[in-house]
Amino acid sequence: MSLPLESVAALRAQLRAGEIRPRDIVAAIRERVEAHNPALNAYVHTDWDAACAEADRADIALPLGGIPVAIKDVIAVRGQPCTCGSGILQGHRSIYDATVIRKLRGAGAIPAGRVNMDEFAMGSSNENSYYGPCRNPWDTSRAPGGSSGGSAAAVAGGLAVVALGSDTGGSIRQPASFCGCVGLKPTYGRVSRFGLVAFASSLDQIGPLAHNVEDAALILGAISGHDPSDCTSVDRPVPDFAASLEGGVKGLKFGVPKEYFIPGMDPAVERAVRGAIDHLAREGAEIIDISLPHTEYAIASYYIIAPAEASSNLARFDGVRYGHRAKDPADVIDCYARTRREGFGSEVKRRILLGTYVLSSGYYDAYYLRAQKVRTLIRRDFDRAFASCDAILTPTAPSPAFRLGEKLDDPISMYLGDVFTIAVNMAGTCGISVPCGFADEGGGRLPIGLQIIGRPFGESTILRAAHHYERTTPWHRERPPI
């Protein structure tokens, strides 16, 4: 098997045995990137000389020693471009490492390449990118999901061993579902956001995308922990996530919310997810029906809160300190206006306008404050559900990957694709997507994801459940045609 398609554990065993060197893994990734990235457009920047130099210095005695990690282009790596998939940050290079990068390096990993994304993480298809759309390795006419589409496509396509993404409303889990890999959104506060360019500060979280659950657990363990540089980072012990994978699902109680099986869901998705639920029941888990009654309001409230926070966060991109600046402005106001008009894409402009509107005088109480109250109700729904179950089982997305361009002119339809993932961010809890089957589409197959949602800081439980499901089913071993 090609080295980038191997698990972290398998690569670590070969490294310790002296069968391969870290440089060999980087070289194998480079070979696959050069062969397949023209078709996938997953990577937007590479520096193989720097990656090889770091590989030669790697200490393979460390937990992730010698393992390359692809980095979403919204996370700062010192000396590398950090453009957030936007024209407004072309030419910008980070002057420091994000905390997650510092932690990965401390564990021996190698940041290797910047991967594509929706501009400023605003999108569900990776079509809103200055670099053009990323493509799904299962069918290059289809979207890989977003906004971490490059991370998912790189892992699923064997162009990366593991990758980091960010998740504001499903941006790790939905691409993982579309591309047939594992994607984990940690609890808000589990992983430092220092060095993550902010979209919606109360919703954003960094997490791993990987070939399997064990690899996701290893990366999560490396990047978790309190960070004084991030005031939202929670000071609590970090479990040994990899050690918690064993134990199976016998004795665990899973809730299935009726609100997550809705009219209009693709029949193949419902069949695959219900099949996964039945499988876990046969493995000894207890399945109960639950209700999350405010689910129907999650999308509406999210698309008030997230754009409002984006409007504030993106105000810093004004052409004065860094990034693109309009030529020959007449005055400061002209500089601001033209820089932002020229630098931002249409989806980012749409969300800034929405956010500015709901925060404006006379509308704050009617929209933003009311949305925050709904968010509290959503969080309480989850609290009540977790009083009767250990985790919650749902589809990750209501459909398999859709065709590129299919929803670009219908933003409401695009937003509704996040119906099963947004509430997890609104509640601040954790969720993981694992492959659970395929849909037959036009002579090919498209992956389907099962979402397992845990209580706050319940990553060990959902990783344990996901690992057992993965180990007792064949789906994660399937590979796309490339």
Could you walk me through the main structural features you see in this protein, from its secondary elements to its overall organization?
There is one protein chain. The protein has 15 helices and 11 strands. It has helices spanning 8-16, 22-40, 48-57, 99-106, 149-156, 173-179, 213-223, 267-282, 298-313, 332-343, 346-359, 364-386, 411-416, 422-427, 459-471, and strands at 43-45, 68-72, 110-115, 162-167, 182-185, 205-210, 253-257, 286-290, 391-395, 430-441, 444-454. The longest helix is centred in the C-terminal third of the chain and has 23 residues, at 364-386. The radius of gyration is 21 Å and the shape is globular. The two termini are 13 Å apart. The model has no long low-confidence stretch (mean pLDDT 96).
Which structural class matches the secondary elements?
alpha/beta
Straight-line distance between termini: 13 Å
If classified by CATH, what would the architecture of the domain at 3-227 and 246-253 and 463-477 be? Answer: Alpha-Beta Complex
**SSE pattern:** HHEHEHEHEHEEHEHEHHHHEHHEEH
Using the CA coordinates, give the radius of gyration: 21 Å
Provide the fold topology.
Layout: H1 8-16, H2 22-40, E1 43-45, H3 48-57, E2 68-72, H4 99-106, E3 110-115, H5 149-156, E4 162-167, H6 173-179, E5 182-185, E6 205-210, H7 213-223, E7 253-257, H8 267-282, E8 286-290, H9 298-313, H10 332-343, H11 346-359, H12 364-386, E9 391-395, H13 411-416, H14 422-427, E10 430-441, E11 444-454, H15 459-471
Parallel strand pairs: 2-3, 2-4, 7-8, 7-9
Antiparallel strand pairs: 1-3, 4-6, 5-6, 5-10, 9-11, 10-11
Helix pairs in contact: 2-3, 5-6, 9-11, 9-12
